[in-house]
């Protein structure tokens, strides 16, 4: 027994975990208060990380959360519009320097700096609604982040969308892509070369597969969605994308008046695509929803005509009816027992102290109060306004 104990301790020392038998038992996403993440990094490396925040260079660090320390992880700056040197958005890669190292079953986690959201709670609430509607959704939990003992601010730990995520949602060994915004695009056919889709869809699993294997089904999807119409269109497109799942996703995005999503004001943005290992059919996963809960009067068909795939899908009466049904479900969930308003109130109360002490956040306390007030008003008023639009849309069918 003594020899086994010694071997166990040696194994955990080699893998960089501070204590045996604990890390895999940690529930990262249990929100029992706002807990602390402690990062320790060489001072010169931290200065360089801030100075080159636009780059993806990794630096060694120690990570500690819920009493578990993981030594020698890799951290780097992350984000697009949220990337900055003042309040670092970070990716934590447990596997960077020691192959096979995990923390509670995760190779990596995202520390989202909540930079673009004056309320600091929008994304977490939006993701809760996606989850309630049955859309595969990354998990999140509010935390306070400290770097070398200094308070960096209020963050969320966000589940990395990778092979572990696919396993959790029952799509083991599937293919996962992150949509990368490179300019305005509404899903138009980019031609016969599957390579045209490589800059737009970054493979996050099976990265070493041949380009044709990875990207030909995506090319086929957007070629088919731009080609012809009617039942021939539907048969071909429905073999390549789960249209019902797509419209359920879109219903949440529409209800939350997300200005920077699949039907964003600047083209498509902020989503992942996954494809089952045993087929060609794609599904959509939400990501980066800090622009949700915008215009309370946003139309339920806003920008539908701009997107090739969505425009064609909603031309089918049964799919249009399904979309309206899911929109209605969103409104009913939000209004039922004041669920959405209660989410706003509870989240704001939960993070209040940590947010008030966050001196690195982009927007001050006055803006946070104003944004939370507007968010609460949205939660109260949006359901009835969406239901009224649904009623008018059904009257025209």
From TrEMBL:
A Pfam match: CotH
Keywords carried by this UniProt record: Capsid protein, Signal, Virion
Organism listed in the record: Luteitalea pratensis
Protein name: Inner spore coat protein H
Signal sequence annotation: 1-23
